[in-house]
Automatic annotation (TrEMBL):
InterPro entries: Claudin (IPR006187), Claudin_CS (IPR017974), PMP22/EMP/MP20/Claudin (IPR004031). Belongs to the claudin family. The keyword Membrane applies. The chain crosses the membrane at residues 79-102, 114-141, 161-182. The lineage of its organism: Eukaryota, Metazoa, Chordata, Craniata, Vertebrata. It comes from the Eukaryota. It comes from Drymodes brunneopygia. This is Claudin. Claudins function as major constituents of the tight junction complexes that regulate the permeability of epithelia. It is a multi-pass membrane protein. The keyword Magnesium does not apply. Its main location: other.
Length: 183
């Protein structure tokens, strides 16, 4: 019975982590404009994401523009896009493997070896997915903090951590927890 509860909890964590991975990949709030040097009146908020930039004017009007060319993007952004897309695909695959493993664990008493291999594969896939999400999210967070405290970076170019990074870190924690439960 405890095994079934652990598998269902891992399935819930993995499912929420999968949705969080999808959300973090799609959200434009990876980098958010910073308000520094006592500038109280701010008319625009700038969001920078993996796929687009958005500008919010007075919180009323929001304009988003997809990046024009893939070739014009900086190499880290291209790599982060690839890692996050790979993580989305792998999270869906690992979630489906976990569903199949949990379903056959509950209905099959013979062939436990095949079912345990399915559960183990789902656990390893969840752990790999969590690692794939952690790399671009943490790298982006580290570069934002480094640039924020760098005096050589002009004030209008300083950015803060966006909501997508926090969603990415939370989904990483859930995916790693689900992978640990299944392993």
């Amino acid at each position: 019975m405890a095994c079934c509860v652990l598998q269902i909890t891992g399935l819930i964590f993995g499912g929420v982590g999968m949705v969080g991975t999808l959300a973090a990949t799609a959200m434009p709030q990876w980098r958010v404009s910073a308000y520094v040097e006592g500038n109280i009146v701010v008319f625009e908020t700038i969001w920078e994401g993996l796929w687009m930039d958005c500008i919010s004017q007075l919180g009323i009007r929001l304009q988003c523009k997809f990046y024009d060319s893939v070739l014009a993007l900086p190499p880290p952004l291209e790599a982060f896009r690839a890692l996050m897309c790979l993580a989305v695909g792998l999270s869906i695959l690992s979630f489906l493997m976990a569903i199949v493993g949990v379903k056959y664990t509950q209905h099959s008493k013979e062939g436990a070896q095949a079912v345990s291999i399915f559960i183990l594969a789902a656990g390893v896939a969840f752990l790999l997915t969590g690692t794939l999400v952690l790399i671009p999210v943490s790298w982006t967070g580290g570069s934002i903090v480094r640039d924020f405290y760098d005096p050589a970076v002009p004030v209008p170019l300083k950015r803060e951590l966006g909501a997508a990074l926090f969603v990415g870190w939370a989904s990483t924690a859930l995916l790693l927890a689900a992978g640990a439960m299944y392993c």
